[in-house]
Amino acid sequence: IGGFNGKVLLYLNTGTSSNYQFTFIPDYFDTIDVGDNSTPFIIDYNDDGNNDLFSGNRNGDLFYYQNEGTNQNPVWNEVTNSFISGNFGANTAPYLVDIDSDSDTDLFLGNVKGGLYLYINTLVSNVANREIEPVNNFSVKAFPNPFNPKVSLDIHLNNEMKIMVEIYNIIGEKVKQIFNGFLTSGKHRFTWNGKNEANEILPSGNYIILARSNLVKKSLKITFLK
User: Fold this and answer.
1) Distance of CA 28 to the CA centre of its chain
2) Does residue 3 fall inside a structural domain?
3) Are residues 114 and 48 in the same domain?
């Protein structure tokens, strides 16, 4: 249980799942103090068989404590008080789970105003040195905009992924597929000449670039002038 004073309390169920009896264990988290309004989450993050601890606080920080003892006699080592950099709002509350079923741990962060952030773990080769990237993992830019006769589409990826880039008209009809496949990390440039799949020139007006991976969709309005 988290506390307004930044401490963490453990109540152990000494009964059963149907007839529970919670007993306070006074010294289990005795060395933990995250400031104010702790929001503890227990998980064996480094896969060593011992439960580790994550906690947010009133300031929006995210603490990670590694258990260097055992589950019965823990020794809590504060690895960092800024597990993920960023401004997530007050009373950060972590929840870690393998949301995309790829055998590694991803991170949800909530806050006092109902905000919710998702971070996807993109490295599984070394569980002791995990890298977590935000789900907002690519950007799309178009220039010139308005354009005639063609527009350049720049897509910047934080990591390798499969991505699809398509053009839609303003009533939601797909008029052109620009790309569908895997891209490496970094910047990639595509062009569109204002033509549809039949190589017919389209009317002037507004169009939508839709770029999507398996987790994210990005859209951008462009204007075709003649």
Assistant:
1) 31
2) no
3) yes
